[in-house]
Amino acid sequence: MSNILDGRKLAKEIELILQQTIESGIEVAKRPPGLSVIRVGNDPASEVYVKHKEKACKRIGVRSFAKHLKEDISSEELTETIKSLNQDKNVDGILLQLPLPPHLDEAMLLRSLDPDKDADGLHPLNLGRLIKGENGPRSCTPAGVMALLERNHIKIEGKRAVVVGRSILVGKPMALMLEAANATVTVAHSRTKDLPSLTRQADLLVIAAGKPNLIGGNHIKDNSIVIDVGIHRLPPDQKSLQEGKKTKLCGDVITSEIEDKVAAYSPVPGGVGPMTVTMLLANTVNSWQKHCGLHLTISHLLP
Ligand code: NAP
User: Fold this and answer.
1) With contact defined as beta carbons under 8 Å apart, do 144 and 279 qualify?
2) CA 26, CA 46: separation in Å to the nearest integer?
3) Would the CA dihedral through 53, 58, 62, 64 be positive or negative?
4) Which of 29, 146, 278, 279 pairs as cysteine with 140 (C-beta 3.0–4.6 A)?
5) Ligand 1 centroid to 62 CA: how many Å?
6) Tell me, what DSSP letter sits at residue 164?
7) 236, 245 in Cβ contact below 8 A?
8) What gap in Å lies between CA 209 and CA 252, rounded to an integer?
């Protein structure tokens, strides 16, 4: 049996559930769910991610209200755009694609989102809800990791988990979600001393450091679970060129050094990436059900 945690396959299964949820609720709701992804400027990686998100919306019947705004937009102008989306009755989810250009006040902009339309769970109220264990939209990437673990029947309770990375986007909410699922969690970061001796203690290792090839065979405990959140576009190698690809995608983990040691691992590409997009859709559909007074039928898909 393969030890690969296939995010693409699971994302497709969850998308089907979401699509059916929309089809069965639309007559009562009288409108489809709406998602607005706001992209500022021309960051090439963001362009790719936003395209994936728009395509995913189309596949399952979510109406996309994408906004592509100029690089030099001011924080005040962007706040006005967010406020008008907050008030738009056709929009259930809003995602501010990060990173923003450096002149923009990210914290202030995230605060200006309606917390109940905050499709990536980054509003301070939603981070507070996560800390307190209250319901609310959860950050999509760690939520995707939780779904990948749970739906592959990987027991989290009682496991010694190490999360490498402490960003607000991934590492911190990831650690909180694992703790809420009763793992014993340690968070590592760039000042952590002797990373390999710490990660070797992990039954469950989640790496979100944004450093290609950071984690190799000597960082891993035998038969552990390894989740690679990192994603990097490197110049193409021979194999990628033969496949007609212009870049080679890789994560933070050297897959060839760990794949035979571990009980299960998420690949890059095809692991956490597709799950992130799916959890964005799930947050939006869940919020649509709330806004339209429908039964909440997909809460079990969300952490
Ligand atoms: P980030 O904001 O740059 O945070 C990186 C974290 O890793 C920081 O906490 C940093 O520590 C820590 N770190 C950096 N180098 C380290 C090292 N040598 N040892 C231990 N810790 C180290 O990045 P992010 O937004 O969390 O994203 C992390 C990665 O995930 C990136 O590759 C990103 O592209 C990817 N990502 C993927 C998805 C997806 O859908 N697959 C979604 C989001 C992000 P300090 O706090 O001390 O600086």
Assistant:
1) yes
2) 31
3) positive
4) 279
5) 30
6) E
7) yes
8) 7
Residues 50 and 44 sit within 8 Å (Cβ to Cβ)? no
- The protein residue whose alpha carbon is closest to atom 47 in ligand 1 is 190
Q: For residue 300, list its beta bridge partners.
A: none
* φ, ψ at 281 (rounded to 5°): -65, -40
CA-nearest residue, atom 17 of ligand 1: 190
- Ligand 1 atom closest to the CA of 251, numbered from 1: 32
Q: What is the pLDDT of residues 34-45, one digit of tens each?
A: 999 999 999 988
266 band by pLDDT with thresholds 50, 70 and 90: very high
Does the pTM exceed 0.70? yes
53-69 pLDDT tens trace = 999 999 999 999 999 99
Separation of 276 CA from ligand 1 center, angstroms?
A: 15
Q: Is the CB of 231 under 6 A from ligand 1?
A: yes
Q: Which amino acids are annotated catalytic?
A: 53, 97, 120
Q: Based on C-alpha coordinates, what's the Rg of the chain?
A: 19
Count of C-beta atoms within a 10 Å radius of residue 254: 17
Listed in sequence order, the residues at least 6 apart from 7 whose beta carbon sits closer than 8 Å to its beta carbon are 144, 148, 266, 267, 270, 271, 272, 273, 274, 275
Whole-number Å distance, alpha carbon 250 to ligand 1 midpoint, is: 14
3-state secondary structure of 214: coil
